[in-house]
Amino acid sequence: MRILYFAWVRERVGRADEDIDPPRSVTTVLELMDWLAGRGEEYAHAFAGRGTIRAAIDHAHVKADAKIAGAREIAFFPPMTGG
Amino acid sequence: MRILYFAWVRERVGRADEDIDPPRSVTTVLELMDWLAGRGEEYAHAFAGRGTIRAAIDHAHVKADAKIAGAREIAFFPPMTGG
Amino acid sequence: MPSVAMTTTTIRLQVEDFDAAGEAAAITRGRTDIGAVVTFAGICRDHEGGACVRAMTLEHYAGMAEAEIASHVEEAVRRWPLVGVTVIHRHGRLVPGDNIVLVVTAAVHRGDAFAAAEFLMDYLKTRAPFWKREETPAGSSWVSAKKTDDVAAARWTRGGRDAAE
Amino acid sequence: MPSVAMTTTTIRLQVEDFDAAGEAAAITRGRTDIGAVVTFAGICRDHEGGACVRAMTLEHYAGMAEAEIASHVEEAVRRWPLVGVTVIHRHGRLVPGDNIVLVVTAAVHRGDAFAAAEFLMDYLKTRAPFWKREETPAGSSWVSAKKTDDVAAARWTRGGRDAAE
Q: Into which CATH architecture does domain B2-69 fall?
């Protein structure tokens, strides 16, 4: 499963993307954030305010309770500020 | 007192402008339209639907009950269709 | 020191065509405090209510037209914090594809630029002394005022969007 | 025979600058059925909430950004009868005065062109995956999302203007 990070999430994690293999008990986006937060200090810092972090599965915005089964690419990022 | 006509009011009256000297009993825009309508067939035709004709005194939109005393220039025209 | 609020306004009535891009560029040139520029161009169409239009002639009330547009530009500047406003309205004979009217509004924030441009267009349609005569295969006739334009203009007078913004 | 409804849509994400006038002209060129063209240009400002901005860098999510913009352009075309829509969003480093985003909407009637342009801008601000990092004399930091942008986007979801039109 490919994970992408953008903006300050990317900066805090220290990388733009990575491939991960979370345990089967991780079924939702929120659970994935919890699991990622436990991977080290930089992840804990990045996902500390996970209430504000948005997620997308395969290029579509999703909520924190979205199931991650079958996802090829999951992205985490702050609220958008384009336009 | 200078009178201007625009669009179909102008075409029906047969002229774009003229100087008039209405009697003192004519005090409002509506009374002026009534008086003009009595000046001949072309005026009667132009002012037949005077409910739809708009007026301006010295470049400012006015209603039919506006007083004409002191006016230098009074214009009659259909609803505007610019833009 | 806060910068002084200055609004650059340009109003022109002309027979000649206008350059929408050039007018927008003239407002923004050399400035770095503008965040949003809205440009509206009204264009002569070849169809109106199902009828084919070959050409139109715009008659206007010289003197009053300038005054009426200026007063609405002033009102737009009072209602929204604008950096620049340009209104150009053509008169004379136009054929389909020709430009008719241009409104450019520039502001720090996009909401103000959009609102002011729509306000100005709604008022130009219903209050500026211009009249269109259309030439169709069936002859030529004066265009009737549209009720939808009156409704659009009325939304700026109270309640409606303005109060919600 | 009624003409077939066709909407020309253009979407581009690019580092290079865009030519707002050229994009608007590309939509109207050779057509005489367009009555209204609204052009919105978003420009990099030198001040943001009182702080001086020297430059900004726009990061984006390639792939998703195109998909997200395309889906909102499609929604705009469904909601309003548009003849043409163009959306161009730049990314990379920009300085005050630089163009950021362009939306052009062309329609038979002005109300549709204005509404679609505002709708697209409100959605680009809140849903398109772009993030701005600003450089100020105090350092550089990520721009926070504005609540006013969320409010602006929410008005298109139900009731509000859409129902009133």
A: Roll (3.10)
